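[job 4471] stage=fold_predict status=RUNNING
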Amino acid sequence: MDLPVTPPIKPMLAKAIAGIPDRHDLTFEPKWDGFRCIIFRDGDEVVLGSRNERPLTRYFPELIDPIRSMLPPRCVIDGELVVATADHLDFNALQQRIHPAESRVNMLAEKTPAAFVGFDLLAIDDEDLRPTEFAQRRARLEQAMADVAPPLHLTRTTTDHGIAADWFQRFEGAGLDGLIAKPHADSYVENKRTQFKIKHVRSADAVVAGYRWHKDGKGVGSLLLGLYDDEGELRHVGVAASFTAKRRAELVAELAPLTEGALEAHPWRDWADAQAQADADGRMPGAPNRWSAKRDHSWVPLRIERVVEVKYGSTLNGRFREVTKVLRWRDDRLPADSNFEQLDEPKPVGLSSVLTAQPPGP
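[job 4471] inference complete, writing structure tokens
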């Protein structure tokens, strides 16, 4: 591959901020909920690079011919791989695309085909555009992707704060994850958080049903969280983590009394050996997954007595989309009151309205 920018490279990143910045040197884009992907095309040779520098090419064969037919012959484009079902981003379906069996990859390529949304241009022909400011890279990207059609898309942008605020609220209903704000004058810096991301942040009271040990074996690594559904079943909805070393050790002592007799009436008692169990609908709190097959997913059950308020960004199929963070313990709350009704779910909106060609204007 003879390009001015060759794989593997680490993509430019964004740091989280609260609210839309009151600055006038920013371009706003929807924040896509998918797999970060950098397309490298040199004639017929195409590589789909990933954030962890391992190629995604073999998992998305349906994109190769569209890339060859619609993108410039020699280019490097940063973007996101997404899968949509029922006009809504479906991250779970996207995750299923990473499979070792070629036959299953090909089947899923037909059943749940992926799309690529481009949002930055790193190189074209023999020109390395990474040192160029973003405003110019965006203009060049619009030229490079002027004639694309699904499954290739050019992300929408705006410099208007009012439009950005509308997108932040409305596009979540299509499964998007917030906004990205890019300074106009910034060059493309690999693996650096010089851009900004504005994500949806919410809180919920959840039952603490168990915990996993930290990887160093010296404290609590994560709390296993549950919410009660309409049938009164405690569903595993995710984990809370990001504790300091001191706090990890403190939690072991604090939670120790709740381990006594925890399995006798525990709603997840059949899953005590989580490493050896599997539950396709995601209710089990410890199954290994395709991304971390070697990680220890065993867990310590706790009596269902404690409630914690956690901060979360979004939900997916009844689970917290990201690892949550503890805000505070809620000893004033009963576990039975921690249910799905408290979750703030976005109003559905068709993904097609987000992918519509950008109208003229800001």
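[job 4471] summary: Residues 274-296 have pLDDT under 50 and may be disordered.
[job 4471] exit 0
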